């Protein structure tokens, strides 16, 4: 009977310790959101690839990490989990003019990396377009003071007006627990 009681006590303590570790890990996981805008200029052709870059995006990473009780040196991984493009203007416009789109990230002293894409944009995409993310670890880009995004896209129809887009990005951050 004693052996049975010790077994359950050990099992109970193990489950409690596991649960505590999972709760502590959740405390060091958080999301960082960024919004920026970019203008796609009107085009005069079809099947014409184009590149558009955002202005530099200030990461404010040091203060963001501090407000989440961590530091740059404790970050284990940062991944882009969501990227959504939304047309701000012209009113009533949609993404039917795009055939495909890729988004790249760059920062000082770091190579440019593809972070999101849509190989075939649906003609019924509407005014909002969610891109597939690549799952690349982006911690060095977000730890930098600023980064830029570059859109590379191919049109399948001409647009007669400039299109202003909002680019929403959500990054998942995983930091070490208690600096261990």
TrEMBL record:
Stretch forming the signal peptide: 1-24
Organism this protein belongs to: Saprospira grandis (strain Lewin)
Name the UniProt record assigns to this protein: Lipoprotein
PROSITE patterns for the chain: PROKAR_LIPOPROTEIN
Domain of life: Bacteria
Keyword terms of this UniProt record: Signal
């Amino acid at each position: 009977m004693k052996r049975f009681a010790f077994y359950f006590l050990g099992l109970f303590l193990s489950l409690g310790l596991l649960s505590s570790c999972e709760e502590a890990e959740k405390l060091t996981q958080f999301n960082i959101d960024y919004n920026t805008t970019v203008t796609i200029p009107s085009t005069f052709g079809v099947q014409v690839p184009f590149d558009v870059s955002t202005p530099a995006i200030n990461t404010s990473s040091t203060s963001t990490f501090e407000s989440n009780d961590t530091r740059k040196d404790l970050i284990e991984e940062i991944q882009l989990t969501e990227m959504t493009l939304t047309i701000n203007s012209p009113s009533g416009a949609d993404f039917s003019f795009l055939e495909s789109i890729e988004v790249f990230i760059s920062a000082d002293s770091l190579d440019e990396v593809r972070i999101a894409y849509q190989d075939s944009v649906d003609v019924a995409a509407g005014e909002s377009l969610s891109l597939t993310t690549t799952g690349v670890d982006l911690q060095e880009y977000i730890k930098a003071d600023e980064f830029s995004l570059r859109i590379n896209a191919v049109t399948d129809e001409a647009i007669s007006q400039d299109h202003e887009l909002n680019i929403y990005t959500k990054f998942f951050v995983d930091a070490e627990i208690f600096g261990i």
